[in-house]
Amino acid sequence: MSKLSGLLPRRHLLVGSAATLAGAGLATVSRLAHAQAAPKPLPAYVSWKEASNLIVHSGTTIETKRAAFGTSVITPSDQLYIRNNLPAPDASIVADRDAWAVTVEGVKSPRTLTVRELKTMGVETTAMVLQCSGNGRGFFPSKPSGTPWQVGAAGCVVWSGVPVRDVAEALGGVVGGMKFMTGTGGEVLPAGLDPKAIMVERSVPVSAMSDALLAWEMNGQPIPLAHGGPLRLIVPGYTGVNNIKYIKQLAFTSKESDAQIMSHGYRIAPPGSKGDPSQPSVQEMTVKSWINSPTPDRGSVAAGTVQIVGVAFGGLHAVTKVEVSTDGGKTWGVARFVGPDMGKYAWRQFVFTAKLPAGEFILASRATDADKNVQPEMRLENGGGYNNTSWADHAVKVTVA
Amino acid sequence: MSKLSGLLPRRHLLVGSAATLAGAGLATVSRLAHAQAAPKPLPAYVSWKEASNLIVHSGTTIETKRAAFGTSVITPSDQLYIRNNLPAPDASIVADRDAWAVTVEGVKSPRTLTVRELKTMGVETTAMVLQCSGNGRGFFPSKPSGTPWQVGAAGCVVWSGVPVRDVAEALGGVVGGMKFMTGTGGEVLPAGLDPKAIMVERSVPVSAMSDALLAWEMNGQPIPLAHGGPLRLIVPGYTGVNNIKYIKQLAFTSKESDAQIMSHGYRIAPPGSKGDPSQPSVQEMTVKSWINSPTPDRGSVAAGTVQIVGVAFGGLHAVTKVEVSTDGGKTWGVARFVGPDMGKYAWRQFVFTAKLPAGEFILASRATDADKNVQPEMRLENGGGYNNTSWADHAVKVTVA
Q1: DSSP annotation string for A77-98
Q2: How far is A138 from chain B (nearest CA, A)?
Q3: Which of A154, A181, B99, B303 holds its CA 20 to 30 A away from the CA of B288?
């Protein structure tokens, strides 16, 4: 259970030990922090990243440390998380980026287009929260299988490429009756296995094409191989897996992909069970926020005025309000947004100024989006540990001295 | 002379050889491109930068290649230009960033404040064009002394720190009669020389404090030593030199600094002469734009639809319009802005879609700001080669095949 207030007596929330706070996910944070004591090295394909800002879970799952998030809106590429369902293709595919080709199906005039051709068809730039469907899984006491991400399987990234709608229009428009936009990744599939069982192919509602890009640039540079270069499908507001790396086919389809990653993967299954096609798919992101400073791993905080800062986003809707609590959710005050507003798909930085005397405090943040959705206190329990937006789980306990 | 149209017959502009285009600065571009054939290595203190995107003029002057600018608004730190008036201090000053101290003078209660203390006083985030006063000097046919920058002594950077106005207010406010905000850099001065002759100390009008920051973060990470960390004075809208690195003193003063870099450096002097205090100081930036793609160094362009992209900014005012010409300035069309608007001090990306047959074309861009200032055709000739905003100088000749 994630219920931080209500189930636990208030006094425990303010002075509680790690044991009493286990239900709030704070013990999980301690456990994970401890696990960082012997860090794994960065794999070679991301050796250009800043190791000190990252937690290496495995060769294909690397998380940004909570203390590494700053207040400058954009997440630098060298500390952006990595989550690859399959190993990245050989680096030879980024040797001649403009030669990479994507086949477009489900339009009146299907065609294979190179990046060179796509670059003549239009240019758009979109800032967007890229977040793994399982970000926050590490706060589930049920320990679902999968990477125990805390907050760092997310970043705010700027993408540049051609709008999918421009490409579709140039090819005569989408064929009638197509309900989905289906992207297929260009990963090399291991031989001898059923391709459908391992390929990365995801479908999103065709309506998502309106803001989607076929992108060749990330944060001002050609998309690194590790992040899907030379060409990545960008679907703003949708979880990371829907943003297909090394995209080799973009199809407008009448049905969802029958690849296993779509039919059984990323489903909201009952706790303890696996996904199947009858369950809701993990797709659109919803309103979420968390505090990045102060946090326990940044050390103790001096009594007096404290600037509590964090990030907030709405998924498909702009974030419009963030409230901050210094008493574990008993009382809340409205935080101030700072910095540039990079559009509804980006996150915003919030700041809440508090006067804190010596003691221990549970700091929490709660965001509201333009559709009046409020970040929930409790996570939705599910077998895969997806979509954790619980403000209680993301609360932090800090010591003020 | 920079006058591209008018002085030169139109037919020469469209089919001109490098010789006939010398007056337009295009020969200069060729000359500089040639000089890049044997690149200098990156100095050790910026070895973390992406060498392939940079032109190393000297150990303290490093430029971003025109072809390295993308369309994602922010300039990544690893390809941002370097221009240091003095060598960077020892890296030991970033070992304990929060311990760095700045003395604030000219307020009712002068004090020395550590970065740790500043972080409790407020947080703001500002995106801003950082541009060397001499950016574009390479296009002056008079070859003024100083680095022959083309377009790459500029970038759009996000800074995070405490607003100077919050610091001043916390210290009782600025003392009456103070007309300037004067920052002093923390560089180590060589012994045996008059400090005033070499120190980095600059004054800007006190009005500039309203949007100024004492910043500790750049593009989402602690400010690198090479860019002025642990603490840099950020004065949005003012040229690079006014954004004091390793700031050790911030003083509100009744007079401008008498350091030589202020009294004689960065002055608009008559061509062929050096600066003195009687001449205007190089301070506020003014409206400017340039095309980053296509350019000659990106190779030939395929006939057909071409996306002409670039950046535009207004200095102290937001940029509101960009026009693009494909015939050397004879005719113009209005470009479209793309991507997030990060505020009036940031640059914006523009895109102009043109249909170009085979041939040679002179591509130019011309920006207008919110105060209706229009980017001029001609540079203002001056001895130091400062403030080159000429659209003719920034035009590029491309071959469409």
Answers
A1: GGG--EE-SSPPPPGGGGTTGG
A2: 24
A3: B303
Cβ–Cβ contact A343 with B under 8 A: yes
Query: On the CB side of A387, how many CA atoms lie within 13 Å of its CA?
Result: 24
Number of CB atoms found within 10 A of residue A112's CB: 12
Please tell me the least confidently modeled range out of A339-348, B130-139, B269-278. Answer: B269-278
Flag whether pLDDT at B193 surpasses 60. Answer: yes
C-alpha distance from B339 to closest chain A C-alpha (Å)? 4
- The Cα of A154 is separated from the nearest Cα of chain B by a number of Å equal to 14
Residues 6 or more apart whose CB falls under 8 angstroms from that of A233 comprise A164, A183, A212, A213, A214, A215, A242, A243, A244, A247, A250
Distance CA B87, CA B89 (A): 6
SS3 label, residue B260: helix
Say yes or no: A320 contacts chain B, CB-CB below 8 A.
Answer: no
d(CA B301, CA B313): 26
Residue A97: per-residue pLDDT: 97
As given in the structure block, the two tokens for residue A116 are 């060179």
Summarised one tens digit per residue, pLDDT across range A332-350 is 999 999 999 999 999 999 9
Assess whether pLDDT exceeds 80 at residue B10: no
- Per-residue model confidence (pLDDT) at position A26: 44
Query: How would residue A15 be classed by pLDDT, with cut points 50, 70 and 90?
Result: very low
- Kindly state whether B160 is in contact with chain A, defined as any CB-CB distance less than 8 angstroms: yes
CA–chain centroid gap for B84, Å, is 13
Do B227 and B243 form a contact (C-beta atoms < 8 A)?
no
pLDDT in tens, B77-123: 999 999 999 999 999 999 999 999 999 999 999 999 999 999 999 99
Rounded percentage of chain A residues whose pLDDT exceeds 90: 88
Q: Cβ contact (<8 Å) for A305 and B159?
A: no
Angstrom CA distances, B276 to A348, B195, B202, B260, stand at 46, 18, 15, 9
Rounded Cα–Cα distance for residues A104 and A258 (Å): 18
Residue positions counted in chain B = 401
Using a CB-CB cut-off of 8 Å, the residues of chain B touching A343 are 340
Fill in the amino acid letter for B131: Q
Q: Is residue A110 within 8 angstroms of chain B, CB to CB?
A: no
B351 touches chain A (CB under 8 A): yes
Residue matched to tokens 């369950």: A279
| pLDDT tens track for A135-152 | 999 999 999 999 999 999
- A126 close to B (CB below 8 A): yes
